[in-house]
Amino acid sequence: MNIASVRRPIVPPTPPRAPDDMSFFARLAVIRQNMIATWGQRAYEEDIVQGRFVLRRSFILNRPDAIRHVLLSNYENYARTPAGIRMLRPVLGDGLLIAEGHSWTFQRRTLAPAFTPRATANLVPHMTAVLDETIAKLDAQTGAPVDLREIMQRMTLEIAGRTMFSFGMDKHGPTLRNFVMEYGERLARPYFLDMVLPVTWPTPMDRARARFRKRWTEFVAMLIAERRAVGKKDGAPPSDLFDLMDEARDPETGKGFSDEQLIDEVATMILAGHETTATALFWALYLLALDPETQEEVAVETRGEHLDSIADIDRQKFTRAVIEETMRLYPSAFLIARAAREKDNAAGVEISKGDIIIIAPWLLHRHEKLWEQPNAFIPKRFMSKEAPDRFAYLPFGAGPRVCIGAPFAQAESVLALARLIGAFRVELADTTPVIPYGVITTQPDHSPMFRITRR
């Protein structure tokens, strides 16, 4: 897209780039605090950046054809790294996000009907009900400083609870948020042994993660038991995601999920669904507060719209472009790391068994060869007929393992942003720059205060 004629766009703040000659131990120290800050200028300019991680070679891939090979053409040759498994398994178990081989194939086939566009459309009333309540609560806070990050977290958690179980999260929401915060602050940061030891060799932090997992799975099992106690009317169609998942059967084998598997799938959908969407909405609101003109364009587009169906959501072209540009600048999954099972050639890159492959949406989305003004906030780049290469833009991954909940997340994000900006003018009450940091997802370094006024 030629964006030379677009008015001067805002460029939101980012962490300083690391020196390209940063030592291994210095880089290791930064990784635990902010993975994004470990990359130097080369990673934003070069197609392939080769390095070493402990005793293994590593490759940062910024070439779409090489990424296509790893994520699509020969994806079975690339497994999650030990550190990746250690970070995710305690909260997601062996759910769809980290399953491999036949287990992943079974889960993907079985869950697919629950995430079709038609199934998503049936869940929109749950979303709109929560948005109505959120807007009503925000009405009472106009003019006063508000923490929109916390409000987005509570809102998306409530949407996750209602779309999953058809009941609100007033009772259990604080406990779930405490689990998320506890894990993120204490257990989700990689230590040296987490990155170098095989998964079968427990590290000291693995023991703490195991204790966390026991408490977490007991909590999710309790939610499932409460939902099952409510039941559903005989012959009635599924009313929520739990009905769809509980009744789901593999179309080839007729097999459904065991109770243990269902716990992991529910945990995956609740956590992956509410936390990533809340973060995307926070960043979108932050960007629109920095860019009032773009915010007004969103408000104009929503004017007169009911916004209570998939058809209404699909008409919000500019709002969708704002969400897409937000996810370009702040991809929730900022890093995809894989280990090669066997030697391979990825579009000319010779890869040996055990090599670490880094595909970083944070880098890819800001790469100077792939995007014009890569660090600027320009939503209209996503309204151009010149779409970015499919493997240069990965907010939900790509290939067979693309996020199964992407249509749901996109509908929720567009609906929420349109309704919120249609109702309120959003401004920053805090002038401190918000710096993104990468620990599991792309988070802000602090929660700024906003001021909202009714339109």
UniProtKB/TrEMBL annotation:
Heme binds at residue 403. Its cofactor is heme. GO terms for molecular function: heme binding; iron ion binding; monooxygenase activity; oxidoreductase activity, acting on paired donors, with incorporation or reduction of molecular oxygen. InterPro entries: Cyt_P450, Cyt_P450_CS, Cyt_P450_E_grp-I, Cyt_P450_sf, Cytochrome_P450_monoxygenase. Keywords: Heme, Iron, Metal-binding, Monooxygenase, Oxidoreductase. It comes from the Bacteria. The keyword Signal does not apply. PROSITE patterns: CYTOCHROME_P450. Belongs to the cytochrome P450 family. This is Cytochrome P450. It comes from Bradyrhizobium commune.
